[in-house]
TrEMBL record:
Pfam families: NAD_binding_2. Residues 4-155 form the 6-phosphogluconate dehydrogenase NADP-binding domain. It comes from Roseibium album. The gene is glxR_1. It is an enzyme of class 1 (oxidoreductase). It comes from the Bacteria. InterPro entries: 6PGD_dom2, 6PGDH_NADP-bd, HIBADH-related, HIBADH-related_NP60_sf, NAD(P)-bd_dom_sf. GO terms for molecular function: 2-hydroxy-3-oxopropionate reductase activity; NADP binding. Its EC number is 1.1.1.60. This is 2-hydroxy-3-oxopropionate reductase. Keywords: Oxidoreductase.
Length: 287
């Protein structure tokens, strides 16, 4: 069986290590603060006193620190041979930092896998959890089963490090967009004297529409088919204008709605008025 290592035992790193131990894997662990290793030692992990020891004892080492830049620094400090090993970095960072990590691993004879965990630590090991990875050709075939233990819906999306950084940015934007929508929505309701409990209670109905938006996006954007709109760009722009006027009349922060209206109205003015709202992808990409 593949020998594994997990380096850095914060909340996420500890969850990854514990999940692998429960699945029966041989797991070496290391943390800068030794005390965090004790609970995992009781669960069967082999505690290492250095990152060198942990990486040296493994074929597949998962690093779960704050950023690719910190992983680069960690790799630079390693004295053990990395030849034939695969380093899986589960941290985040800019594309340039990911490229730097891949470069130094290649120089040291190691293969790379970069992973993006779409879950809180409590979601590790669940069937509906997704970890998206990129890596050298063949790494997913060798170690994909391990990643799927950590997240049942995990998948590989290619080899280019920049692909994962872009995917993180895109999916993070979707999640944050919804959160900021709730925040700005709460503010305009608060200005109008509406109870925030009332506002919160109405969000589940809005969530159904979010699912409908996803279905529309999935149907139109990959196929680049933006015709036959049930609700056109023009209709959305007029609704956004009405909402924007409400924000402004109540002196509520309106920059989020202003951005949406600005983009939609510009597309309408340039001939996209009868298209699907999702045609903004095409309109903005062409600018």
């Amino acid at each position: 069986m593949t020998k594994l290592a997990v380096l850095d035992l914060g909340s996420m790193g500890s969850a990854l290590a514990r999940c692998l131990l429960e699945a029966g894997y041989d797991v070496h662990v290391w943390n800068r603060t030794p005390g965090k290793s004790e609970a995992l030692a009781n669960a069967g992990a082999k505690v290492c006193t250095s990152a060198d020891e942990a990486v040296g004892a493994s074929n597949f080492a998962i690093v779960c620190i704050k950023s690719h830049k910190e992983t680069v620094a960690l790799v630079e400090e390693l004295s053990t041979s990395l030849g034939g090993k695969t380093i899986c970095d589960m941290s985040t960072g800019e594309t340039s930092d990911a490229d730097a990590l891949v470069s130094i691993l290649g120089e040291r004879g190691a293969e790379y896998m970069l992973g993006m965990i779409n879950a809180y630590p409590s979601g590790v090991g669940k069937e509906d959890t997704t970890i998206l990875t990129v890596g050298n050709a063949g790494t997913w075939e060798r170690y994909g089963d391990i990643i799927r233990v950590l997240g049942g819906k995990s998948a590989n999306v290619g080899e280019r490090p920049s692909a994962l950084a872009a995917l993180f940015a895109g999916l993070f934007t979707v999640r944050q967009g919804f959160m900021f929508g709730m925040i700005f929505g709460a503010l305009v309701c608060q200005k109008a004297g509406i109870s925030l409990q009332v506002f919160s209670d109405q969000l589940p109905a809005t969530l159904k529409l979010v699912n409908d938006y996803h279905n529309l996006f999935a149907r139109t954007v990959p196929a680049e088919d933006y015709d036959n709109a049930e609700a056109s760009m023009k209709v959305y722009a007029m609704a956004q204008e009405d909402a924007l006027k409400t924000f402004e009349s109540l002196d509520a922060p309106a920059e989020f709605m202003q951005l949406m209206y600005k983009r939609t109205k510009a597309a309408w003015d340039e001939g996209f008025g009868d298209k699907q709202l999702t045609a903004l992808v095409q309109h903005m990409a062409d600018q």
